[in-house]
Write a structure and sequence with these properties.
Layout: H1 6-22, H2 29-59, H3 70-75, E1 89-97, E2 100-107, E3 113-119, H4 132-149, H5 156-170, H6 176-187
Antiparallel strand pairs: 1-2, 2-3
Helix pairs in contact: 1-2, 4-5, 4-6, 5-6
Amino acid sequence: MQIPNTNVVKAQTAVIAEFLTSKGLEASQPAILTLLAKLQVAESSVVGAAKVQADAAAENWTASAGAMTDEQYVTRGGNCCPSCGSHDISGGSITVDGRSAYQGVTCADCDAEWNDTYTLTGYDDLEGGIDKDNVDAVVADVKDRGERHGFNVDDEAQANDCVDGSAEILGLTLSDAEKKLAVRQLLE
């Protein structure tokens, strides 16, 4: 279940109240909120029914209907030939192009050839990389020492020295990327 954004609900309530007032009608905020809730239920029912209908169309596909649509192919997981439905398919190497990737695929049964298309949707399982807490600690320490001892970090060489010294004082080991980030933050 989605939790509604209170700012959106307030804006929607205000728009509905303004509309009703312009038509010479009045409605209390609870009545408007009830109306919004009913509209959300109706919308999810319509969207859900459309998805069920599309999934059923994909599952009921046969080769006599012609080539699968993209939606039918994706619903089946792309594990079959979009022309004849055979599972005797083989894929070639994957070519990456910006946010998309392509793989040539062939069917052993009907000799069809096509490209499977993949789109970047995000990432997961990130390990390693920049430890932002360590960088923030070093930057805060350098700034604090600068305030206490009356100095400013004016150039990259000085920033590098300060970052190295602060990391040592704090007992932290920063990677090259973390040092670059700390230096960049100090010079901003």
